[in-house]
Amino acid sequence: MVLIAGCNPGQGKQAETQRMMKVMFFDESYFFQQYGDMFAMQYPNVEIEVVNTQSIYSGGQVEDYNKAMMDFIDKEQPDVVMLNPETYSKMANDGKLMELDTLIDRDKYNTETIYPALIEMLKQKGNGKLYGLSPTFNANAIFYNADLFNKYGVEPPHDGMTWQEILDLARRFPTEGDEKSRIYGYGTNYSTTFSQLAQQIASAEGLNAINPDTLKVTLNTDSWKKAYQMALDAISAGAVYNPKDGGFQGGSMEEYYKSQMFLMGRIALTTGDPYMLQSLKEVRSAMKDYKPFELGMVSGPVDPTNPETSRNIYFSEIFGIRAGSPNADAAWDFIKFINGEDYAKVKSRSMNNGLLSRMGYSKEYDGHSLDVFYKLKPNVSEDQYSSSDKIPMEFYQQYQTIMDRELGLVENKKKSIEDALKVIEQEAQVTLDKAVKDQEAKKAKEGSAAGSDAAK
């Protein structure tokens, strides 16, 4: 599909300079809604074609995402590519992206008010050079119910809190009462299990159970034991919202909102993204007898070994120009526009696509400052965005079964964390090795069949 922004009568000069641009994106209609329509109004002489990356999956499961993506780009030859940090880093270091620094200098394009940590991260992944820009990002923060902290005389949270500090605060709140009336020190709007809490802690500290490159399972380490022990202590103390029925099971909108414990003022601390602010705004108008509370926000959670950064900052739409693009001028105009001030002014009115990288326009939402989301630097590892295509999908279900069994024994005090992690690591490795072997055999069989058909 092609969108042509027509010229007004008498705009002969624009008609003479009609330009083409091919953009790689995951959904055509969403692209125009989010970026294309606004760009076309500013640049009516640019004809935009969207090449949909969903075609990568048209043949079924993708075994190697990075290879499939590179093959897609080589075939479609888009001028503008949309990448995650992993593919951005790979393409930049393989010389497949156009350097933007010279274009920025040439046009005196203002990057000073773009989230500095984003520029720093993108340059780091480009070996000191800038090959792309991201108009939006998402980040987590720590939200707290200031009224509960005041009521129970607990010192409120501070910026740069670790998970240990968060859960220590959570345990200072009372645990008496039934599930329908009591409060909780920590929780999300949904049930938080022992395993889920441990994974949240591990993620903040950069721990990975499975190395997608070596295909080795590594769980029986001091760092993992500490993460699971921290989670177990909080769960065992009754400080974490973890209902036996798993939380909301369906019902009316009012029943849904009533099941959201932080929104209902029954959780002292939670972690989440900016959409929490939107939910708090919506619930006020959705429920007649809703009782609002004073909301507080601080930065975190952070890794205690690197407290200035966060692994809960995400960039999923980094736009760059494919090296060798014949339409680099139009592509650069597009990237400048969606990362520019005019675009930020319009998009600052909503939070539908996350936080704006161009700072100074989206300063607050519903009376709450958004500064907290810009305080930490992103600590973005490749594993955060790795699609782990080498790991067969069939493995994960079996892995989860092993995890549930062993962690259940830990929660019921029938096995130590160390013994459980040792068993999980051993059994998961055997399961992963078999799944990989079966996958390779399947691919070999399919390749042989394809070769046989070609010979016929």
UniProtKB/TrEMBL annotation:
It comes from the Bacteria. InterPro entries: Bact_solute-bd_prot1 (IPR050490), SBP (IPR006059). Signal peptide: none annotated. Residues 435-456 are annotated as: Disordered. Keywords: Signal, Transport. Residues 447-456 have a biased composition (Low complexity). It is found in: Cell envelope. Residues 435-446 have a biased composition (Basic and acidic residues). One of its GO terms (cellular component) is cell envelope. Pfam families: SBP_bac_1. PANTHER family: ARABINOSE-BINDING PROTEIN-RELATED (PTHR43649), SN-GLYCEROL-3-PHOSPHATE-BINDING PERIPLASMIC PROTEIN UGPB (PTHR43649:SF31). Belongs to the bacterial solute-binding protein 1 family. This is Extracellular solute-binding protein. It comes from Paenibacillus faecis.
